[in-house]
Amino acid sequence: MNTNTTRLPRRHLLLSAAAGLGALAGLSGCASPQPADYAQERPLLELDHYFNGRVRAHGIFQKRGGAVARRFTVVMDCHWQGNEGVLDEAFSYSDGSTERRIWRLTKHANGRYSGRADDVVGEAQGQTAGNAFHWSYTLRLPVDGTTYDVQLDDWMFLVDDKVLLNRATMSKWGVQLGDLTLSFTKE
User: Fold this and answer.
1) What is the average pLDDT across 175-186?
2) Which pLDDT score is estimated for 31?
3) Cβ contact 168:153 at 8 Å
4) pLDDT computed for residue 71 by the predictor
5) Which DSSP string corresponds to 75-90?
6) pTM more than 0.85
7) Integer CA distances (angstroms), 152 to 3, 5, 52, 101, 138, in order
8) Residues 6+ apart with CB under 8 A from 103
9) Which residues contact 61 (CB under 8 A, 6 or more apart)?
10) What is the pLDDT of residue 143?
């Protein structure tokens, strides 16, 4: 009887260790996607081709719980000269307010891009592969007279020559604040 009680904790320990290893293996399957995961997807997304000319977008911002907090449209006038691009965005919100953001993008080797805008802290960094573009940046966001620096994890996927879908997660201090969803249409 004493032998069984000493073996029971050992078995329990082995089962716990096996369960823990199984959980770690399961978590490795939950790793965030990378641009390279989409390298074989088509049509090929080249930002300097898609964002060249006029592009329109319709979007929503959803709070963390899923409620739609804002609806908006964007008209973008875009042009490139060599590896330098300008995306002039005019936002119109459902509450009647407007906003303008002018992105200045640089195309680098191997599908890398960097970008700056007046309300972006530092420099945005991104990568294209296949039909996807992923970039991250910190946006200085005014809310009710106070300004917050929020992080955006931004993914775009080219559906066809005209339509690009965009989903961005907004967070602060690692806490998700909400999601932006946009549908771009190239004119």
Assistant:
1) 97
2) 81
3) yes
4) 98
5) EEEEEEETTEEEEEEE
6) no
7) 58, 54, 23, 15, 6
8) 85, 86, 87, 89, 115, 116, 117
9) 68, 69, 70, 72, 170, 178, 179, 180
10) 86
Tokens describing residue 151: 């992080």
What is the SS3 assignment for 173?
Answer: coil
Among the listed residues 158, 145, 152, 146, the one whose alpha carbon sits nearest the alpha carbon of residue 49 = 158
| CA dist., res. 88 & res. 153, Å (int) | 21
- The per-residue pLDDT for 30 is 64
Quote the CA–CA distance of 108 and 85 in Å, as a whole number.
12
The type of residue at 10 is R
pLDDT tens by residue, 86-115: 999 999 999 999 999 999 999 999 999 999
More confident residue, 151 or 21: 151
CA-to-CA distance for 102 and 91, rounded, in angstroms?
Answer: 11
User: In this predicted model, which residue has the larger pLDDT, 23 or 60?
Assistant: 60
Q: Please return the burial class of 125, using the count of CB atoms within 10 Å of its CB with bins 0-12, 13-18 and 19+.
A: middle
Show the tokens assigned to 114: 């960097």
Return d(Cα 43, Cα 54) in angstroms, integer. 20
